[in-house]
């Protein structure tokens, strides 16, 4: 028994520290790998008046984080679809076309509402609304706060997840080009603001855009529930035009005038500086072209809607004027006609015969 007790003491003293060290190394390696997927990378300590703050900049490892949140977004998409939208659509008894649009608007209402709340919180806490000059001052904005970078990564993950969702949701072929257009439009603008270090301006523009889109999809859901309810569409039509005006004004003010007055005007991709005349013109051209295209589609759809509405109203006002014929009582004699003479059913004429005098 003494030998076994010595072996057990030896294992407790020698093997336990080795096993503990092995587990620590293993957990450390897995933790680093997990943090690569879960948390934003490229953190930098930036000195401030209150001390040091941890900020972030972008890099190739962000693609891994975006990939992870693409899968998270797909799962959340499926949860919203199964436990909320499917239960509501069964009660409405929609057609296939309306059912597809209902699912699209339902998903986007949830996304736009959460994005508007999140974006508004970030803009207010970072002080971008109270100090509009911060949108272009101290450019390039290479170092981002945690919440700003995490917001952009989640936005990119959502719009990238929308591409495989076209297959999972079995979207009709007629709807795929339209959805690809606005998915690519969002990806270009969000990635452009993130990579060109215009994250502050991009946050404010997304807040305006998402607010108008949330109103539109809410109006469409209310229309599917009650086809006579079109008041929210009128509110969205007014908000849409105002939003285009604000986005264009803010983009021209920040890019055209604000960045033009910044002292550091040079093309230096290593430092994240893209403040040159050519880059500013390209950015303004992209924003203006996108807003003009959206406005053209809006006007075209409104004209088509008004044309259909007017045709329906004119059709209702028309009263069918059918010619009224005077009611005539037609007395037909029994029998049938033969050579203009009415014959009886037995073939004899119905006229009275004259009797010959004897």
TrEMBL record:
Keywords linked to the UniProt accession: Membrane, Protein transport, Translocation, Transmembrane, Transmembrane helix, Transport
UniProt xrefs under SMART domains: TLC
GO biological process, one term: SRP-dependent cotranslational protein targeting to membrane, translocation
Entry membrane topology: Multi-pass membrane protein
Subcellular locations according to the entry: Membrane
Region (Disordered) residue spans: 338-358
GO cellular component: endoplasmic reticulum membrane
Transmembrane segments: 66-85, 106-130, 180-197, 235-257, 277-299
Record's signal peptide: none
Record domain TLC: where: 100-309
Family from the record: Belongs to the TRAM family.
Name of the protein in its database record: Translocating chain-associated membrane protein 2 isoform X2
